[in-house]
Structure formats: structure tokens, C-alpha cells
Amino acid sequence: MYQSEFTRFINGFLQQHPEVDTERRELRLTWWDRQVDLDALARYRDSKVPQKPYVYQPE
């Protein structure tokens, strides 16, 4: 089966440095694998105030 040079490099690197894969999995849990609070998200979107076309112009 064909593997590109980059794929072979990454596989070899991960075999030599298993802590990188462990850290990657932990960081993924931090940012991606979370439950979304839909009520909080809806409140956040509803509470946004529309920005004026020119923010530096006094009212």
C-alpha cells in the first residue's frame, strides 16, 4: 500500500514521540469534545448589540 513521504515521516515521529499524540488527544478534549449549552448559546446570540456603521461617530 502506498504511503507518502510525509505520512511515513509523521508515523515515524509519533512512534518516537508518543507524548505528542497524548497531548494532542488532551487538547482535543479541551476544545472540541464538549457538550454545547444551547440555552447559553441562544442567550449570547440574543444579547449582541448591533454595531453602528461608523463606530467613531458620536450619537
TrEMBL record:
Which InterPro entries does this UniProt record tie to the protein? Answer: DUF3460
Protein name stated in the entry: DUF3460 family protein
Source organism per entry reads Crenobacter intestini
Pfam families the UniProt entry points to: DUF3460 (PF11943)
Source species taxonomy = Bacteria, Pseudomonadati, Pseudomonadota, Betaproteobacteria, Neisseriales
Organism superkingdom: Bacteria
